[in-house]
Amino acid sequence: MKILFVFANDYLSIGIPTGIATLSAVLKRRRHTVDVFDFAFVKTQSRKQQKQTAATSQCLPTPYSPEDLVAEDPVQSIEDAFVNKLRSFQPDLLAISVMTANFDNVIRLLEKVKPSQPVLLGGVHPTISPKDSLAPEVVDYICVGEGEEFLLELCERIDRGKDFLDIRNLGYKKGKNFKINKPRPFINMDELPPPDWALFDQRHLFRPFMGRVYSGSFYVMSRGCPFECTYCANGALRKNLKECGRYFRYQSPATTARHLAALKETFNATWFKFGDDTITIFPDSYLEELAELIRPLGIMFGCSVRPETITKHKVELLKSMGCVAATVGIESGNPRLRKEILNRKMSNELIEKAINLLKDADIRVSTFNMIGLPEETRENVFETIRLNKKLGVSAVNVYVVYPYPGTEINRNYQIELRDKSGKLIPASEAAGFELSYMSRSEVEALLKTFPLYVSLPEDRWAEVRKAEQPSEEGFVLRNQLQEDVRSLL
Q1: Residue 62 is part of a domain; what is its CATH number?
Q2: Are strands 119-122 and 93-97 parallel, antiparallel or unpaired?
Q3: Which residues, including other chains, have CB under 8 Å from residue 329's CB and lie 6 or more apart?
Q4: Residues 272, 294 contacting (CB under 8 angstroms)
Q5: How confident is the model at residue 58 (pLDDT cuts 50, 70, 90)?
Q6: How buried is residue 124: exposed, middle or buried, by Cβ count under 10 Å (0-12/13-18/19+)?
Q7: Same domain, 286 and 148
Q8: Which of 43, 56, 200, 334 holds its CA 20 to 30 A away from the CA of 346?
Q9: What is the pLDDT of residue 401?
């Protein structure tokens, strides 16, 4: 059977998605034929190359950039590129991974192209919002939960001409109603093959770090998360999949080492980004075994960590196995907002201690931060800015909080994610929810200038304040200040 995956990501959003790559590997192992339509390298007139932002000003320049990789690519519409892929590959099934952020874009593409093949949606949004995902006429089926065993069984039943509407995890239309079948138990992750990186354009292996370019991409060795942050979809996923088994689980160190060795050998991959929510949640014994197994591979990697899970011993283990970069979730510099609004119960002192442990081990530290939080003021944002500044982190990532469906923030504030026309409000317009005590324009201005406030000395903050202006003058000044930041690197 021929399956075409659709990966509806942003232009030049580089990195191979572990979910699709693993599904492809599972299907190929049973001799199905697989291809992917990937938005990342479709150059259109309207999808402009990613503009350099204040966040990128904190990164060292590399010999070449993602823009250089696509310099010779033809300009075409996404619709034409999709039609050409359908004609050349002639799939039997379209399997599309969707999140809330890209759901409407996928539906618009399907409505324009009107493919003759059955359409199956999978991913976070169908699992959290199954009825919303099944509602469009162009959608035939959805997968609620994990897809490996489900998709394999679906394809093999279709191949043999057998009925498949009783398959676990399947959602479908039954007249005017929606039918969501019973979920299946979570898969044993040690039975999964290495992710199929060969499915994707190899430009996805572009991994810049400290001014050099390496080969590599994402790798995930766990699923789920044991924490219950109010803004995260994990809470809704845990609730919807409670019959499937233990929500947070991970594969053995031996499986991880075997997969990484295969990816290094096949793709010359030496720089990985572990996509696990927090690698330091694993027990000491797990990390000790993992370190012994992957240290001989001589790889480098980056990871995400939660401050309250960091210990000196775990940092030493990470460093010994090749960790060169870690991103720590601060989210807010105000302890009350962090605890009461986000359900992240940690002190600023704990965060500082954790980050200093990483820095002392010569691991490059960046942070995750959010603004536009419920009850947040401009002064609270500057608490977050000053905490980052005090900690001396190498880079900051900042986002406007988005009330994803099923999250506690969404429920508590009864937020409607669709506008009056019925379209999902995209994450890029999250400031429009106006959950904080700031206006939309102020939140958007702080989003653009947050890294500048962190990087530049306070005696230049008056200039940054001027750069908040939503005008040509503000845009020009932001670019000038970004150049000043680069000169400090």
Answers
A1: 3.40.50.280
A2: parallel
A3: 304, 305, 306, 307, 344, 367, 368
A4: no
A5: low
A6: buried
A7: no
A8: 56
A9: 97
